[in-house]
Design brief:
The chain is mostly helical. It is 80% helix and 0% strand. α7 packs antiparallel against α9, α8 runs antiparallel to α12 and α13 packs antiparallel against α14. The longest helix has 30 residues.
Length: 286
């Protein structure tokens, strides 16, 4: 994680090179203090997001995909992380109650991440993958609000389970591009199964995060299946039902195809499940 964070931090130099040119040649500011202010601003904005990655307040999906895919091409790492940064920031801008100063940092880093994204030469295949991905993100954003309303009203345990599975399946689509990009030029027979298990991993990963963020989500009025069940008194049964469901799904996928990438994702799911069960034990003590 630290290696990825450091590598992406180096992209600030690319921004500064172009920004210094704009300040000097186009705006015609000769005061070196202007360049220093720009540099400090970019570093502060970046550190705000990077700290969240390193503290696991925000998940770097690139990290998990790279962990599962041994041949993850180095040439797409910066593109992948810039997409991660963009989605992380949009998520907080969409959900969180942010102070003006924090919002300004996010917007500055969002603009910077977009410059990194568009600093690549794309072929038609990458363009199509990116277009499809952002349409998926739109779907997630819209459907989360839809499911929030359904969950607020629902009191039946089985219905809450069903709705929670649907929303985690929906949210898990945000993992897709981080797997699609490294696999796009590979002739693999099990791509479908790899996508399925990567989404399964992401669903479990999101469940873990929702458990960790329970208090934070309550303070910010962020609604999901875990928080809904917590308010209705069946939080832990819901969590156990969900992780058992996704564990069974992972086992079924692994039985279809037991390739290296699928095994890696499966092991990562098992690791997440262990962490979730430990979190449940802590929640019992509250």
């Amino acid at each position: 994680m630290k290696d990825l964070e450091r590598q992406y931090k180096k992209t600030i130099k690319l921004n500064l090179k172009k920004l210094n040119y704009i300040v000097k040649k186009e705006i015609k500011i000769k005061n070196p203090q202007a360049n220093k202010i720009i540099e400090n601003s970019l570093n502060i904005a970046y550190k705000h997001l990077a700290k969240k990655w390193l503290n696991e307040e925000k998940y770097l999906r690139t990290y998990f995909a790279k962990k599962a895919i041994p041949f993850y091409p180095e040439k797409i790492i910066n593109l992948s992380i810039s997409l991660d940064a963009t989605i992380n920031i949009l998520d907080d801008l969409f959900d969180e109650k942010l102070e003006t100063e924090i919002k300004a940092l996010y917007i500055l880093e969002l603009l910077r991440s977009l410059t990194v994204t568009y600093n690549h030469k794309y072929n038609k295949k990458i363009t199509e993958i990116m277009e499809n991905y952002f349409n998926k993100i739109i779907s997630i954003a819209v459907l989360e609000s839809f499911y929030k309303e359904l969950l607020e009203k629902e009191t039946d345990f089985d219905k809450v389970v069903e709705l929670s599975m649907q929303i985690y399946d929906c949210r898990s689509l945000d993992m897709d591009i981080y797997v699609e990009l490294p696999l796009m030029n590979k002739k693999l027979k099990n791509k479908k199964e790899i996508m399925e298990i990567s989404r399964t991993f992401r669903a479990v990963n999101l469940i873990k995060k929702d458990i960790t963020d329970l208090k934070h989500d309550e303070e910010n009025q962020i609604y999901n299946g875990i928080r809904s069940a917590d308010k209705k008194g069946f939080r832990n049964p819901l969590i156990l039902t969900l992780i058992n469901f996704y564990e069974k799904r992972a086992i079924q996928i692994k039985r279809k195809n037991n390739g290296k990438i699928i095994r890696n994702f499966f092991e990562m799911i098992e690791e997440e499940n262990i962490k979730i069960k430990k979190s449940i034990e802590k929640l019992h003590l509250i």
